[in-house]
Amino acid sequence: MPWLTTLKERARSLQRDTLAVWFAAKDKRTPWYARGLALLVAAYAFSPIDLVPDFIPVLGYLDDLVLIPAGIALTLKLIPAEAMADARLKAEASLAKPATWWVTALIILVWIGFLVLIILLVLPLFKNQSTIGETS
User: Fold this and answer.
1) Model-level pTM?
2) Helix 101-135 and helix 32-46, axial crossing angle in degrees, nearest 10
3) Which of 43, 51, 41, 112 is nearest to 77 (CA)?
4) Does 72 lie in the same domain as 17?
């Protein structure tokens, strides 16, 4: 089955490029706007939280099949070629090592931090609206 081999190679390439985008975001040669997009794409790709949950038929995997590759493709166009080549080498070396638990914990902590920040920013808005309704 040659198509299965091709699919596995593309998945491996996507995994490598996702990690390479992360490394390129930390490279000084990468422009600030490419860094920002690279960080967003990598964080979304590595995050256990999806825009559309995977349990929703078809749509659940659509973000994994479309959004992440499209985000990586756009990011690759913005990153200088020499920075991306170095980042791909780092990604290959990193993929050769076994994954550690602290990376997963870090991603979860970042998402919890975002949720807390959103709650802290939105909660005062609801309190203000409730006091406005009482005074009218």
Assistant:
1) 0.60
2) 100
3) 41
4) yes
- Number of domains making up the chain: 2
Tens digit of pLDDT for each residue in 43-98? 888 777 777 776 777 777 777 778 888 989 999 999 999 999 999 999 888 877 77
Same domain as 75, residue 16: yes
Q: In terms of domains, do 88 and 121 share one?
A: no
Q: Domain range holding 56? A: 2-97
Buried b (16+ CB within 10 A) or exposed e, 79-94: beeebbebbbebbeee
DSSP 84-114: HHHHHHHHHHHHHSPP-HHHHHHHHHHHHHH
- What is the C-alpha to C-alpha distance for residues 49 and 2, in angstroms, rounded to an integer? 32
∠ CA 21-25-30, rounded to 5°: 110
**How buried is residue 67: exposed, middle or buried, by Cβ count under 10 Å (0-12/13-18/19+)?**
middle
